[in-house]
Design brief:
The protein is mainly alpha-helical. 71% of the residues lie in helices and 7% in strands. It is built from seven helices and five strands, in the order ααααβββαβαβα. The protein has helices at residues 2-25, 35-83, 91-125, 143-239, 270-288, 307-320, 338-345; strands at residues 245-248, 254-258, 261-264, 295-299, 325-329. The strands form two sheets. It has a three-stranded antiparallel β-sheet. The protein has a two-stranded parallel ribbon with strand order 4-5. A hairpin with a 5-residue loop joins β1 (245-248) and β2 (254-258). α2 (35-83) runs antiparallel to α4 (143-239), α3 (91-125) runs antiparallel to α4 (143-239) and α4 crosses α5 (270-288).
Length: 347
């Protein structure tokens, strides 16, 4: 029996070392805090991982939107350059060509207007004058044809003049988009870096979860037998007649085998389920603390027990008080251990 306890103690220490090693690997072990606090830190990191995963999804959406904007901008630039027959090695060269073409157009429009003004002055001064210029190809067109051509050119010039502000606006919009391309590329680089870091965090957390699952399975396998034996002993003391063979799964969830079938604790009456839960907790305490005895606080745990089981529970508490320090709280005097109070008040 002693050898078995020593073996259990050695296995408990080995498991504790394994848990400490796992917590240390993921930066959750401080050396001075209990496992529960360290596990809480690890859970917080897991929640942080979930938040990071949400941010990763947001970053990816922003990345896709930025890439779509970049692609649309490039398409509009290509369409603009094709429309006005511009060519160049870089977008900056193409925009420079567009700017030079706009300035030339404005200059030509001014020169055309000056020529029209001079022609109007000439026609006003010589209304009956007929222009005849002898050339190798023949004579010049008639005055009426020149006037029609002038009107046509004037209309085209006015159309071009009206179109010029629109072209300038398009040019400015395209320039702003080109200027925003480096910022979009920086955003894409940041999103990719965040994606890599998030993937790394996901991998680390998945490894941590795997180690914790392994540790939990080893923990359950180690203490199942001791907990089942302890439960039988406490159930016999508290509940009297046996309810069935206890069965524990790897999550330390308790079932009772009744007529060859496992039965959940919730299927029993409230008082019986309460008694089973008390026995299970005491069996866990006894299995986990084989050397030291912890301090127990019982907050009116027998409220649903009948008179017979309440008497058994108080007797069990008196026996447990020989090994444990117990703080027993009740809200009804009917559940007081009057025998123990009488012994304590005796001189």
């Amino acid at each position: 029996m002693m050898q078995g306890k020593r073996d259990l103690q050695d296995r408990a220490e080995a498991l504790a070392d394994a848990i400490r090693t796992t917590l240390t690997r993921y930066g959750a072990w401080s050396g001075s805090e209990p496992f529960a606090v360290c596990m809480q830190k690890l859970r917080k990191r897991f929640h942080d991982y979930q938040a990071a995963a949400l941010r990763f999804q947001q970053y990816r959406k922003e990345l896709e939107a930025a890439q779509a904007t970049q692609s649309e901008t490039k398409k509009e630039l290509i369409a603009f350059f094709r429309r006005y027959a511009l060519s160049g090695a870089t977008p900056e060269q193409l925009l420079q060509q567009a700017d030079e073409a706009a300035r030339l157009h404005a200059a030509y429009a001014v020169r055309l207007q000056e020529a029209k003004n001079r022609l109007s002055d000439f026609l006003a001064e010589y209304p009956e004058q007929t222009l005849q210029v002898q050339e190798d190809s023949g004579t010049l067109p008639a005055l009426e044809e020149l006037q029609r051509t002038e009107q046509l050119l004037q209309r085209e010039a006015e159309a071009l003049q009206n179109e010029l502000p629109v072209l300038r606006q398009e040019r400015d919009a395209l320039r702003r988009r080109v200027e925003s391309l480096p910022e979009l590329e920086d955003s894409i680089a940041l999103c990719k870096e965040a994606q890599k870091q998030t993937a790394k965090n996901v991998e680390l957390l998945e490894q941590a979860l795997s180690f914790l699952e392994t540790a939990k399975d080893a923990f359950a396998e180690r203490y199942v037998g001791a907990v089942e034996q302890g439960f039988q002993r406490y159930a016999h003391a508290l509940l009297g007649a046996p309810l069935g063979e206890p069965l524990l799964d790897k999550d330390l969830e308790l079932y009772l085998e009744v007529h060859g079938k496992p039965r959940e604790i919730g299927s029993f009456s409230a008082g019986t389920a309460e008694g089973i839960a008390i026995c299970m907790r005491m069996a866990l305490v006894e299995a986990l603390y084989q050397q030291e005895r912890p301090f127990l606080i019982l907050d009116d745990p027998f409220v649903n027990l009948d008179d017979e089981r309440s008497a058994r529970a108080l007797a069990m508490l008196r026996k447990l008080a020989e090994e444990y320090q117990i703080l027993y709280l009740v809200c009804n005097s009917s559940r007081l251990d009057r025998a123990a109070l009488a012994e304590e008040s005796a001189p």
